[in-house]
Design goal:
By secondary structure, the chain is of the alpha/beta class. It is built from eleven helices and nine strands. Strand 2 (47-51), helix 3 (57-64) and strand 3 form a beta-alpha-beta unit. The longest helix is centred in the C-terminal third of the chain and has 16 residues, at 208-223.
Amino acid sequence: MSDPPTLRETLDAHGLSAKKSFGQHFLLDLNVTRKIVRLAGPFEGRAVIEVGPGPGGLTRALLESDAGRVVLIEKDPRFLPLLAELDDGSGRMVLVEADALKVREADLTDGPSHVVSNLPYNVGTPLLIKWLTGPWLPYALTLMFQKEVAERIVAAPGDDAYGRLAVISQAVCEARLVMHLPAAAFTPPPKVASAVVHLVPRPDRPDSEMLKRLERVTAAAFGQRRKMLRSSLKTLGGAALCEAAGIAPDVRAEVVDGPGFLRLAQALP
């Protein structure tokens, strides 16, 4: 595609704007989207899935990259004609109208695949949990969230942001915060800043049964995070569970590291 119109021109030509109900905030600066794609790569011909491409800022950068198939999952039908204009007819770009929470990603790509997305704010965390704990695990994920959500993913024990999301994310992946973006970078500007997190699955990640146990333990522990574990985990075994996992029962969830929670999950009766 030679000398394409700018994203803003494309939006104006189609009479489109962001929909608040879909949590849409568009990145129209191609310098920014290209930087995100560089942080996500190299792809070395592997497929990339993008959720919520909207006007196609990240899509354009992905199509310029060394990605193989680029699969776009867009729920908002208003953007399908606009995105279709980016297709060069080679079959490399695949446009899927669907709700990403309900999609079977394994049906869309063959072999290892990346996920690179400016996630809609209202489904970012549920999508991440789906990818971390579901049957399909990406080769790597490079995802933009609200800054506070990004900080919760990479938080360490003792941090204010440390909780279930950090424990589960870091049990499955190596997680790094790789980029900050101010609200002014988006159209329309959200009320909060954003950040990009890069996650690479661990070779020793827990299996599906262990992840279910980990979700049970973290739900109980952080559901009453101001209580000591002997109280917050009472329904799961309380002090006896803690002792079986080699963890003091009089500490709070916020100071227990990832391996500690995995031992608690393992010790569940």
